[in-house]
Structure formats: structure tokens, C-alpha cells
Automatic annotation (TrEMBL):
Recorded GO MF terms: metallopeptidase activity
Protein name: PmbA protein
One cellular-component annotation, GO: cytosol
Pfam families with a match to the protein in the record: PmbA_TldD_1st, PmbA_TldD_2nd, PmbA_TldD_3rd
Coiled-coil ranges from the UniProt annotation: none
Alphabetical GO biological process terms: proteolysis
InterPro entries: Metalloprtase-TldD/E_C, Metalloprtase-TldD/E_cen_dom, Metalloprtase-TldD/E_N, PmbA, TldD/PmbA_N, TldD/PmbA_sf
Residue span, Metalloprotease TldD/E C-terminal domain: 237-445
Domain Metalloprotease TldD/E central: 125-230
Domain Metalloprotease TldD/E N-terminal stretches: 33-97
Lineage of the organism: Bacteria, Pseudomonadati, Pseudomonadota, Gammaproteobacteria, Oceanospirillales
Record-stated family: Belongs to the peptidase U62 family.
Length: 446
């Protein structure tokens, strides 16, 4: 297995390097500077058909330095945090800054906004796992899936585990550090019938390895998801209600946040420009982030500007309540930062929840989508078009699997036509949501 990772020692080293870079930048003529540094170590093991395929050990580190000369900005980075590399990186950033144009919005976030509350958010859980133990867990996962009747082949199972440290410091005197870990196990299986082969997968992912699902459960779920896709047909073409599986509904939230992001707004590249306090969803829907939630996937007490993070409500009773802004994008829009440099953290939905069965009954006749393909989303217009697979629903019941079709609509209309959210909440990522039922979308099949 990889060499033991001493997170405490790494924090001290990175903090020292960051302060060294800041002092050097000031000495060489920068008016202000900020430094981000990180080191990560991980292991990934993959098995297939009962044999070990790969054992990958990784160790990555980097340091990024941004300097400001007046309102000119220069940035440079390196994967080497040694003395000579820091010197060269600072000099390169300063050289870039001297040749860039003045930008009235550039500069550090205001000093009074720097994070002062940096609690332990319980996001670091090392996993003392030997290579042999990791291999056995992956093999157990695949074995359980392959033992399910009807599974004919395997694309393998993978176990990954890793931990890391990040540091952010700037010339306001702010220095913040955070440790973190990530662990996961996945399996992909294949089944075949007269209509051809189908494949699907299942996975579990957590900060704390003790919270991972049992390997055998993951393998059996992968098998069940694969087998249910056998006998797929193409659906009819028309306008139908569409139910998005929780893993796909989180993607819709992601598209929403992309449209609310300050970078898209000040470039006029969002369909939600100038829409604060206007309706977008039904009144029963609200969305907020909780960046200080202990143990959550994206928890952090400070953003990429060093600004104290806080709960932000982006959608309140259906209306757009806030944009998602960094210090820079906030200045461009003449608004205060929302502490979202680096994105939103731990998005949570407030809405009445229904069982998936109730949503299918409400749908009556339509499409339940379980996989999407392609990148057909236009952030400027909100137009949405994706290849899909899933299941055909009639009389509120799943009838048969479907594939090789496209769903299309417009995000603004889709959000307005949100008819219900399921209680089958997927908690494996930063966005927690259940299934989404959209009243009507265009389905292009036969």
C-alpha cells in the first residue's frame, strides 16, 4: 500500500510554503498575493473476472500563486513546492501581471470577509487498508454481482481510497487549512439476451469508510440494474412526462447552479441574467447550500477566496433569491460576494417529498430516465437535449426498458413544470435530491 500519509505534518509544510511564497511575492514587488497549495495521496484497485487488473498508487501536489500589481493580475503554478520552484513560480506570476491589462474588479476579497470560524467539519477519515484487504473487498463486490443469475460478463469492480490537505493563504494575513478524505467502491456488470448486451453499474462513496455500503450489496445492485435493462425497445415519439432518477436529477441542479454562477452572469452567458426575485420553480420548492454541515461531501469553512462560507438560499419558495458569487464576479455585478469562489457546497432541497411509486402514479404514462448521454445543454438559452435510456411507464406502472431515444426541453420550462420530488434521496454527492418529475418534455424515439 502507499506510504503512510501524515496529514498534520503535511498541513504544517504547506502552510510554511504558502507563507514563504507570500513573503517572496511582496519582496519582489507585488501589492497583494494569494496562494493555494495541496497534496493528495490515494490508491485505486481494479479487479475483473476474479483477477486483479491494476493497483494504482498516486501522490499529487501543487502550488498556485496569484499576484496583483495595482489592478493587474498574474497567476502561475507548479507541481514542485521546493524553494527554487516557489521562486520561479512567483517570478513568472509577476512577469505575467506586468503585461496584463488593468481590471477594476481584480484583487483579493475584502479583509473583513476572511474566515474567522474554522471548526473541524469531520471530513477526514483515513482508512488503514492493506493492498490485500482492498483487493478482497473489490473481489467480493464483483463476485456477489456475478453470482446473480443472468449476469454473463463483468467490466470489473474498483475500490478507491484517498486523503489530502489543502491550504489557502493571502496577504491579508489569512491562512486556512483543511484535511479531507474520500473512499468509494463500484461495480459494472454485463447481461445478454436475444436483443443484445446491456450493462449497468452501482457504487457507494463516502468520506468515512465505515459508512460505505457492504461490497456484496453493491455488486448485487449492479446485477439487478443490469438485468432490468434486458429487452429494451425504442419508445414512441411525442410529448410525455419524464421522471429523472435521483443521480440524474442532481445534474439538473448542477445546470441551475451553472446558470446562477457569477461568471456566466457577468459574461451574459446565462438564461437567468437579471432574474433575481423572479419565479423559476413552483412555490413549494426551495434550494440552499450548507457548507458547514459536518461530514458532508463538500463542507468547507472558507471558499477559494478565503471568505467565510455560510448558508445561502438560492431558490426561496420558487423564486431566485441569490446568485452564486465569488469576490471577482460580485464586483463585476456590483453585488456582495456570497462566499462561493470554487462553487456551491452541499446543496439541499426543501420540498414536500413523495415516494417513487406515487410519482409514477402521478406520471401515469411517460418515461422514467435512468441514464443520460451527451452534453446537449445550452447555458445561454437553457435549451436541453440528451440521449437517454430508462423505462416506459403506463397506468403508473413500469412496463418495459427503453433505449436509443432523446429527451428535449428548455430548462426554464422544465423547472417551472416540476411536478414532484421523490423521497429516494441520493446522498453520495454534494447535491442531495430524490427523483424529479417534469410534467412534459419532448421524447424522440420511433
Amino acid at each position: 500500500m502507499a506510504q503512510a500519509f501524515d496529514a498534520q505534518a503535511q498541513q504544517a509544510v504547506l502552510a510554511s510554503r504558502a507563507q514563504q511564497a507570500l513573503a517572496l511575492a511582496k519582496r519582489l514587488g507585488a501589492d497583494a498575493a494569494e496562494v493555494g497549495a495541496s497534496v493528495d495521496q490515494g490508491v485505486e484497485i481494479s479487479v475483473r473476472l476474479g483477477e486483479v487488473e491494476t493497483v494504482e498508487l498516486s501522490r499529487d501536489q501543487g502550488i498556485a500563486i496569484t499576484v496583483y500589481v495595482g489592478q493587474r493580475k498574474g497567476s502561475a503554478s507548479s507541481t514542485d513546492a521546493g524553494d527554487d520552484s516557489i521562486q520561479a513560480t512567483v517570478e513568472k506570476a509577476l512577469a505575467i501581471a506586468r503585461y496584463t491589462g488593468e481590471d477594476p474588479a481584480s484583487g483579493l476579497a475584502d479583509a473583513e470577509l476572511m474566515a474567522s470560524e474554522i471548526p473541524d467539519l469531520e471530513v477526514h477519515y483515513p482508512w488503514a487498508l492493506s493492498t490485500e484487504q482492498a483487493v478482497e473487498l473489490a473481489l467480493e463486490c464483483e463476485r456477489a454481482g456475478r453470482e446473480v443469475e443472468g449476469i454473463t460478463q463483468s467490466d470489473g469492480a474498483s475500490l478507491s481510497t484517498g486523503e489530502g490537505v489543502r491550504v489557502y493563504a493571502n496577504s491579508h494575513g489569512f491562512l486556512g487549512t483543511q484535511k479531507g478524505s474520500h473512499h468509494g467502491l463500484s461495480c459494472m456488470l454485463i447481461a445478454e439476451d436475444d436483443n443484445g448486451m446491456q450493462r449497468d453499474f452501482a457504487y457507494t462513496a463516502e468520506r468515512d469508510p465505515k459508512a460505505l455500503r457492504a461490497p456484496a450489496d453493491v455488486g448485487r445492485e449492479a446485477a439487478q440494474r443490469t438485468l432490468r435493462r434486458l429487452g429494451a425497445r425504442r419508445p414512441a415519439t411525442g410529448s410525455f412526462p419524464v421522471l429523472f432518477d435521483p443521480s440524474l436529477a442532481s445534474g439538473l441542479v448542477g445546470h441551475l447552479m451553472g446558470a446562477l454562477a457569477g461568471g456566466a452572469l457577468y459574461r451574459q452567458a446565462s438564461f437567468l441574467c437579471d432574474r433575481l426575485n423572479t419565479p423559476l420553480f413552483p412555490e413549494w420548492f426551495s434550494l440552499e447550500e450548507r457548507p458547514m454541515e459536518p461530514g458532508a461531501t463538500a463542507s468547507s469553512p472558507f471558499d477559494a477566496d478565503g471568505v467565510q462560507t455560510r448558508n445561502n438560499r438560492f431558490i426561496a419558495e420558487g423564486k431566485i433569491a441569490s446568485y452564486m458569487l465569488s469576490a471577482y464576479s460580485a464586483r463585476r455585478l456590483s453585488l456582495p460576494t456570497t462566499g462561493n469562489a470554487g462553487g456551491a457546497r452541499n446543496l439541499r432541497i426543501s420540498a414536500p417529498l413523495q415516494t417513487p411509486e406515487a410519482l409514477l402514479k402521478k406520471m401515469d404514462c411517460g418515461v422514467w430516465v435512468t441514464e443520460l448521454m451527451g452534453q446537449g445543454v445550452n447555458g445561454v438559452t437553457g435549451d436541453y437535449s440528451r440521449g437517454a435510456t430508462g423505462f416506459w411507464v403506463e397506468n403508473g406502472k413500469v412496463q418495459y426498458p427503453i433505449e436509443e431515444f432523446t429527451i428535449a426541453g428548455n430548462l426554464e420550462q422544465m423547472f417551472a413544470n416540476l411536478a414532484g420530488i421523490g423521497d429516494d434521496v441520493d446522498t453520495r454527492g454534494s447535491i442531495h435530491t430524490g427523483s424529479w418529475l417534469i410534467n412534459a418534455m419532448t421524447v424522440a424515439g420511433n
